[in-house]
């Protein structure tokens, strides 16, 4: 959808220390290019998100009273079962009675949250802004962060984005999300729906699930379906934002190995790797739903943007769910 009056007012992150992999592997090879993953120790994801919110509010001089909605996107366990992390984030950072809702849309969660928040801003004039957060901590006996997600490591971080109708350092020009339900089982493999893996002590291993799915031969043209959906959603946001590929200053996506990013995204677009945000996230690991927004924050903080630059963002999550957006930089913020 074309978006005319939604701005990125503030963007904050909490980025812990990067830790190198325990042993050399394909991802850390010269070809793979990854240098490590962010590791947050015993800091819970909602606290990582709250720290990112505090930074975003300080950077954008955000009044919590302006926020009419809090959406928190999550992938892995956030805290005690039966408890909701957005309520913690709201208590720690807002202290108001606005809805605080968790979005469970996997690695594409912030794109889905953004779509929902836009609807709220457009239809409810009572508040001019919404707060979007995401955070993960993959330190768990059920996850080996170095092997659970082939093509990348799993990293810990928090991110917070304030969108506002009144203005900001960047304008959201277009946004699209689609699903490819034929590939639902790709991230499930042969694992049963019940009982949930965590309650049965089964480790999280996406590589094993993908191999199981391939062996089942349920969707022989799965890669073609995924590629077609990705290309269509990218073409849609570019067209709706009136953006030509040669106008794209940066492409930000998931923090995968260099061959993965090059062959599955940058080369099909016909762009050089220098226009990808890969260098900024090569030591971060895959951060759940946060990768693209943390990378955008790093690029802006490094002073690598100028007014008029357009950033193409892509997210892919289980489901399969795909999201994309075009963001135009309006000004270089003073925290750059």
Fill in the keyword field for this structure:
single chain, 336 residues, alpha/beta, Peroxisomal Thiolase, Chain A, domain 1, 9-stranded mixed beta sheet, two-stranded antiparallel ribbon, 8 helices, 29% helix, globular
Short description:
The protein has 336 residues and is of the alpha/beta class. It contains 8 helices and 11 strands. The strands form 2 sheets. The chain has a 9-stranded mixed β-sheet with strand order 5-4-6-7-1-8-11-10-9, sandwiched between helices.
List the helices and strands and how they pair.
Blueprint: E1 7-14, E2 18-19, E3 37-38, H1 45-60, E4 67-73, H2 85-93, E5 100-103, H3 109-123, E6 129-136, E7 157-164, E8 170-179, H4 206-216, H5 222-240, E9 248-252, H6 258-269, H7 278-281, H8 291-301, E10 310-317, E11 321-329
Parallel strand pairs: 4-5, 4-6, 9-10
Antiparallel strand pairs: 1-7, 1-8, 2-3, 6-7, 8-11, 10-11
Helix pairs in contact: 1-2
How does this model look, in words?
- Helix 1 packs parallel to helix 2 (85-93).
- Strand 4, helix 2 and strand 5 (100-103) form a beta-alpha-beta unit.
- A nine-stranded mixed beta sheet has the order 5-4-6-7-1-8-11-10-9, with helices on both faces. Strands 2-3 form a two-stranded antiparallel sheet.
- The protein has two domains: 7-168, 3-Layer(aba) Sandwich (Peroxisomal Thiolase, Chain A, domain 1); 173-329, Thiolase/Chalcone synthase (Peroxisomal Thiolase, Chain A, domain 1), CATH 3.40.47.10.
- The chain is globular.
- It contains eight helices and eleven strands.
- The longest helix is centred in the last third of the chain and has 19 residues, at 222-240.
- With 336 residues, it is an alpha/beta fold.
- The two termini are 29 Å apart.
